[in-house]
From TrEMBL:
Highest taxon listed in the record's lineage: Eukaryota
GO cellular component: mitochondrial large ribosomal subunit
UniProt source species: Pseudocercospora musae
Lineage: Eukaryota, Fungi, Dikarya, Ascomycota, Pezizomycotina
UniProt GO molecular function: structural constituent of ribosome
Name assigned to this protein: 54S ribosomal protein L31, mitochondrial
Region (Disordered): 54-82
Compositionally biased intervals (Low complexity): 56-68
Amino acid sequence: MFGAFRPTAPLSGGLLWKIPWRISRHQKARHRQRLRRVDNIVSVLDNALQRQAGISAQQSTRTQQTAQVPHPEGVEGQATPEELSHTAEGLRMLARDTNKDVAQRRHGKGAKQGDYVPEQNPVGIEVPGKRLLRDVAAEHGTTKLIERWKAEMPTEGEMLAKDKYTMFDKKVRGYRKGVHKLPKWTRVSQRLNPPGF
């Protein structure tokens, strides 16, 4: 009890992590800045991918136009399947044409719930829609993850102050706790909360 290993008052009692109950105004400002920075990165990536898709579409139309130019000898490059079956590149071209329907068919279960673009029902609750994220991403020339982020996550300007600075927690009285109590809260995007809470 006494001696070198006697428990001292600060070690024997009190919380290990001293996290204040409220988030300070400086932390709030830095948090808003982080949210805006993430929104900016998402928009920059989306614009760059759309621009790249537009450039690649222009290049593909140019290559199609150059491919339609007749051969200088007047002979067009259309080989028969027997001629194509003698070379490795020809075999690949034949396999691509014959297995097209197999590649387009999806085996197993259908698309996952997160693969659909969310829509709002008449009550205002988001439900999975009828369009696949893959199709929307192909339309806009971007990726599924960015399209899903834009569909589900509100921007910093669209968020209520309640959602910016607090988050849902079923174990807390009032079902809300400060977002700064989330572990690694400066690294994690916590923007969505259950409806009604």
